[in-house]
Fold each of these.
Amino acid sequence: MIDHLLNFPDEATAAAALPEYCDEAYVWRGDCCIPGVRVYQVTGTETLTDPETGEEFERELVAVYPSWFVLIARPELDLLLHELDACCLVRDREASAILFTAPDFDGAIISPQFA
């Protein structure tokens, strides 16, 4: 499967741009879409101390991308999705390969993802 990550200012803009995947009531196709995914990058770590046990542990620091994202899975590369200005990442899930990534999205983490 090929996953296409698309970046929009908000859900209404995404729904208007992708009518074959979402209706006017913002009901996204559950068979191939994960709307509202969180996209972020790990920017570092910090050491914290558990106040009850005194144990130290590391916590990741993250920078969350501020836009609204939808992840759309297709059996093959969808050129219509890929050619949209909103497309910021295309990956082949089965081959564990990135086919396209916009410069600002190199190393981005997507949550949730397709299994």
Amino acid sequence: MSREVFYDLDTNKVLEGNYFYCNIKLIDSVLALLENNYDVIDCKLSDDDNIYLDKQDISVDIKDTALTKDDIIQEGKDNDEYRRITHSDSEVIKYDSFKPDDSIEIKILGTHEFSNVPEGIKIFNIDGCTIIKIKIDKTSYEDNMYGFTRTLTKLDVSSTINKLNSWIESITGKEVTKVQYDNNSYGNSYMAIDYNNKQIIKGSYILIDPLMVPVISELRQKGYHTLGCCSGHHDSLFIQNTSIIPEEQFLPKKVESWIVFSNEYPVPQPPEGAEYVDISKYFRISYSFDIVNSDGTYKPSSVIKEEIEYSMNKLLEWSKKLPFSNSINHSL
């Protein structure tokens, strides 16, 4: 699978250099390790909005409720898996599951041995690297959604990072300080870390799908103020799993290729056949298409890939024909 790249808005090119992605919540931890000569080369943080239900095993006759197969994600009774309610007919609800990814991982170049590793942190060596892995704490609360009292569990990233930083302080002998940085990356949850210089790469950049680079480059060269975009990601996990029956997986039924512009600057005429929304300070154009066949099965991944690439070609042709922004009205 291809990985998103940082697009430098100042040079209008893909960010050059030897860098890696760092979640902004891990910047303090990562820089503390780098400053103490641990050559961090990668890191990963699960989504702390990842919410799943805890120990609920509800049997419901859907004739007497407004529930549908898309209403609830249930966690299994004896494990930590997601559970999505589906049903095989109009009355029976069954449970299908997939594992959540709930950990922080930091990869350090070289083999390192650490003593006094606290519970919850695992250290293992692989391929000449050391992996620090810490399972994210969970916090529970109750709600009464859909008329059922349920205990929900969500990831508590903040307390887990505090635990990680306390351990880093114990192995380095130095306090993990709050790093001051100018986040010019337009709200990205990731920043670029320069591996060679061991510091945050400064500047204005966005995290972008490589397929969108030619389109965004053309638009920005003509003065259009883009804020975000997505091709639809033909390399994403759900497209690779199109052989699975749609009802039995937590996956979308449509793919969108979209671009968002700031409405405080001139915005372009939408391309032919595209959907567009003009709301407040944002102007959004998109192409969307179903990725499910009429019989309820997913289209082959090769077909979805072709449709996404077709959307990209249409957007690129459109962007090349647009006038420069300073020659059009402020907005439509």
Amino acid sequence: MHFGERKSRVDAAVGPSEVKRLDRYNGRWLFYVRAGIYVGYYAHRGSKYVFAIGTHSPRYETRSGICVGSTLRQLRKRIKVTCNLASDGTCQTVPANHNHPFTVFHIDGKRVAEVDVFPGGD
């Protein structure tokens, strides 16, 4: 799966989904039970396309080896992130260019509880 991929292709690859509301992003996402991922879509000309991907599952890792369950210390050691733990409980990657994808890590206590990836850009 990749940003901009059609929903019909995602459905064919990972199976059925159910609507979930993620209040922190003010919108509805689809949860693919079999894959354990949330997908945010945008509509364009009658089709839906992948806009963002998230998970609560520890089976998916970043290239740096960070996954749900990793400690905050591991995250900060392996990836350059800026954190807003007091205000919204997140850390996010700092892309070299605002048009590059970025990752948001939701921290629960001292561990990563959710990982979300966005395409970046304005």
